[in-house]
Amino acid sequence: MATTGLDPLLRLRQSIAANDPPITTTSSDPIPASEATENLATATHLQFNNPSHSYSLDTPTRFVSSDKPVDLRSIWFAWQKKDVAIPDYIASAQQLNEELAGKDGGATKVQNLVFVERLDLITWLEGASEESEYIKGLESDASAARSAQVASGAAGGVSTIPSSAAGARIGKTIDPRLQEIYNGERRMGDRNTVLRGIKPTVRPLSPSHSPYAPPTL
């Protein structure tokens, strides 16, 4: 049975890590490994085990090449040819495309990844790298990033009071309007200045300006 909720690229990486690689089949229904086919020109699905899930080999993946998503057939083909030299990989891709063209007139093709893309893909699938510049993030990762931005005040929501200004309220959140009022209070001065006011500075008069000074003869 085909699946809709799991990412095929991530599922492939997990199966490789578990030493339980998928099999290529000609049906979307689960079949025993003994009935699998190794011919990618006739195969239509990639079946995973434990639990059993099948994906169409035409499924677009999150791996992007030339601004286009690479299909699962091309991903699986690149993994199968991970240990061959570049000329052999290119020749094998051309031969497979000729076989596919004989089946559907060229509607289906395996994409020939360039060296850097293939190396990046294999490194990620093997688990040697946690990131890939050619793999788009999952939608769940994007949602988590947006939630983190909102929580930090970077993308709406409430902002946090800086530690230098909040004192004992460090870590708590405050409405933006209250934050503006708080900033205005800081500009007015400290608590003692507000309560007592600013005392004027009185300079003593010199004897010549005193009203009680004796007249000058």
What would your notes on this structure say?
With about 220 residues, the protein is of the alpha+beta class. About 40% of the residues lie in helices and about 10% in strands. The strands form three sheets. A three-stranded antiparallel sheet has the order 1-2-3, with helices on one face. Strands 4-5 form a two-stranded antiparallel ribbon. A hairpin with a 4-residue loop joins strand 2 and strand 3. The longest helix is centred in the middle third of the chain and has 19 residues. It is globular. The termini are far apart. About 15% of the residues have low confidence.
- Gyration radius, rounded: 35 Å
Tally of separate helices: 8
Shape assignment: globular
Which stretches are low in confidence, meaning pLDDT under 50 for 5 or more residues running? 141-152, 158-172, 185-191
By DSSP, the count of extended strands is 7
pLDDT averaged residue by residue: 77
**Helical content (DSSP H or I, runs of 4+):** 40-55%
- SSE string, helices as H and strands as E: HEEEEEHHHHEHEHH
Strand numbers in spatial order across the main sheet: 1-2-3
Q: Main beta sheet: strand number and arrangement?
A: 3 strands, antiparallel
**Hey, roughly how much beta strand do the residues contain?**
5-15%
For this structure, the quaternary state is single chain
Distance between the termini: 121 Å
Structural class by SSE content: alpha+beta
